[in-house]
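Sample pair:
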Amino acid sequence: MNITSVVEEVAKLNPTIVSVVGAGVSKASGMPTFRGEDGLWNNYRAEELATPHAFSRDPKLVWAWYRARMRILLESEPNPAHYSLTELEEENIALGIITQNVDGLHELAGSKNIVEIHGRIRYARCVSCNYIERWDDEKKAQKGIELPYCPECETNLLRPDVVWFGEPLDSQRWQKATEWTTQSNVMLVIGTSGVVAPVSTLPIYAKQNNSIIIEFNIEATPISSYCDYSIFGPCEETLPDFTKKLLNKIG
């Protein structure tokens, strides 16, 4: 089904939209999924670096990897897919965005209601206390600087404010994600592989709630079978087209 036909069906619902977003949305912004900025990081797998054990074993290596990612992030900007989701929010037909991305590009695009389910790479937090600080500036992302310590504890390290492999999700973020899923009647599943649990279960909850599920992706995914409609193509092209037509339709 083409985008115009999908819009016709959605517009009939007086839609309340929630979006579940994956790495495919940020690809057009120049964000790699896990690899760093040079060949060094091709020798490592994300699962070897983004873990509590890796940080405990070699915090300098882990921070070097995250600083490399931050240098790429500082050169990245939101793309039309990010801005389309902001438009839906500003028109009061979207509850919010549940994103698996840690890059903060939705915030830069102007979105306010965001659940960053896997955390925020633009922030660092103390491994012991509740101290958090922004980390997205060129000085902190430089190569070769010393390990960052908490200015309050002084003896404890800061770590990236992200969810590492083997760590549980933040319970409040997950609760908000499930609330939005049950409160909406349209779910947009955008640029996600659909294989990372528990986020991959949200379309199932939405289907049980009788929501319409619309997938935006380059190709079919494991969750395509749960979707009422699949719109294939680059998200930075298909999502703005959908958003423009929907907003024009509902006036």
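The radius of gyration is 19 Å.
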